[in-house]
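User: structure tokens for this one?
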Amino acid sequence: MKYYSLTPILKKAPSARFYMIFGERSSGKTHAVQEYCIKDFVKTGHQAAVIRRFREDFKGKRAASYWDSLVYDGNGHNKIKEYTKGKYDHVEYQSGRWFLAYYDDELEKNITAPEPFAFAFALTEMEHEKGNSFPGIHTIFMDEYASKGNFYLPDEFVLFMNVISTVFRGRATPDMKVFMCANTVDMVGCPYYKEMGLTNVKKMKKGQIDIYNYGNSGLQVAIEYTDSPN
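Assistant:
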């Protein structure tokens, strides 16, 4: 099984601001972005923001297990442990934030890193976040941007751009990136394609990467239709 890698799209569009990745289920899209976030945090201390539509997506088991594919990849490989060189071996979720953690045998409890590596943001609750500051966040990840059955929020694209404005606060360094992943469930009604002017999405073939300029902003949008995992 060959899973998705970010390498081709990052190589083809190294200075893009938005990276949109869509394709079949279980191809490794989300895993690849999660891996990027963890590696970047360990290397630079840069944090990530994970965006979903509803707060319910970040409650209980859904949030607690969100990074589990990096703790156990199906072959018994713990990538958290690998990337942190044994310092941490799993992830803990606390009040909308994810922390690298390890279990201390002597204290018989989990010990978390001093700072979170990622924050959870729900589009429906962004009015409550406008006054907050997140200077450590350099990566934004919108998971499942395309909705099955066209279940989008009213003015969803505006809400999404407000999140970016709130998080980045006018900062604009080349390493600040927005990743967006989705399955091939909505190739017509998805508001992100229309609002970003991505006119060729329906004609893309598997493995194809297109690059657009987003309006007059000078920002690039790179979009990829991933190959099948098989």
